[in-house]
Design a protein that fits this description.
alpha+beta; Lipocalin; 9-stranded antiparallel β-sheet; 3 helices; about 30% strand; elongated
């Protein structure tokens, strides 16, 4: 048998990879680089190649404006603990429907001039009546009044996300939800910009005088007593922010309308004596009603002010 001659491999040309098994590591490395490149390209395709792009996971609700909105209290926390009082419906509102003026409901409630200084709510002196609330919720409401006055005057910070408002003070945080304008937050009236329609936050009772046609005290109708001039008594709401009425001495005070209610400050009046005791008693009744934060209802040319079982009905003009 003849031997097979040994054939030597030719020398590789300069630059060529070595023949045989030595090529495998280079091929594997090249394959790894290619796989890595594919992964990077897929990642770029999914996330985008612009770091400044805003990638959204869904629609973001537009924030409700602070002014022009009535807010309902959801929770109150103090020191991280829940301190939300059990407030009756309608007594848990913060009314910011009129820019520059804020009010809240409660026992007497309160109202005052307000502004936004950056993210801080700045509230001036608040006007309140001094009515004592004697029902089952009375003490809770009066405590809530005192808390709200101190909190609002402490320059809380304002943060809004969607329809949620968070007011953060030094010692407490209030979370609220938007409930529309002030009139839609109450059950007494519907919202409308027409002054002849049910009461609205835009028109309210302002711009008119109202002649009293009926009075109910403690749920019982009483006679309306004419003034010494022989005219029926009148409630004057011509100038926004001021209320007055005629009678024996009559009366006058600062007022604010919000959340479907009329908040009236201390009534000032003369102290002359009148021969008609009924007229003097009527003065006292009107002063008490107006400073009890009465609910306001306007239907056409008829104004009704109601506080508990006391009521006044008046006609425009």
């Amino acid at each position: 048998m003849s031997e097979v001659p040994e054939v030597s491999s030719p020398d590789p040309a300069p630059g060529d990879p070595p023949a045989g098994p030595g090529r495998r590591p280079i091929l594997l490395a090249a394959l790894g680089v290619a796989v890595l490149l594919v992964v990077v390209l897929v990642a770029i395709a999914v996330t985008g190649d612009d770091d400044d792009d805003d990638v959204s996971t869904g629609p973001v609700a537009e924030a409700v404006p602070f002014w022009g909105t009535t807010w309902r209290i959801v929770t109150i926390t103090k020191g991280g603990d829940d301190a939300t009082p059990d407030l009756p419906e309608g007594k848990d509102l913060l009314d910011a429907s009129e820019e520059g003026r804020i009010s809240f409901t409660g026992c007497n409630g309160g109202s005052g001039a307000a502004s936004l200084d950056g993210a801080e709510l700045v509230v001036d002196e608040m006007m309140q009546t001094q009515m004592a609330c004697m029902d089952d919720d009375g003490q809770v409401l009066m405590d809530h009044d005192a808390f709200m006055v101190e909190f609002l005057r402490g320059r809380p910070t304002v943060a809004i996300e969607g329809d949620r408002l968070v007011l953060t003070g030094a010692d407490a945080t209030i979370t609220l939800e938007a409930v529309g304008d002030a009139s839609s937050a109450t059950s007494t009236t519907a919202a409308s910009a027409d002054p002849d329609a049910p009461v609205s936050t835009e028109a309210g009772p302002w711009g008119s005088t109202w002649t009293i046609t009926a009075i109910s005290s403690g749920g019982n109708a009483v006679d309306v007593v004419d003034t010494p001039s022989g005219d029926a008594p009148v409630i004057d709401l011509t100038a926004e922010g001021t209320v007055s009425y005629t009678g024996c001495n009559g009366g006058r005070g600062e007022a604010n309308y919000g959340a479907g209610k009329l908040a009236v400050g201390p009534i000032m009046s003369t102290k002359k004596a009148c021969e008609d005791a009924g007229l003097m008693a009527q003065d006292d009744f009107l002063s008490s009603l107006l400073t009890s934060v009465p609910e306001v209802s306007i239907e056409g040319d008829t104004l009704t002010l109601t506080a508990d079982q006391d009521q006044v009905v008046a006609t425009r003009g």
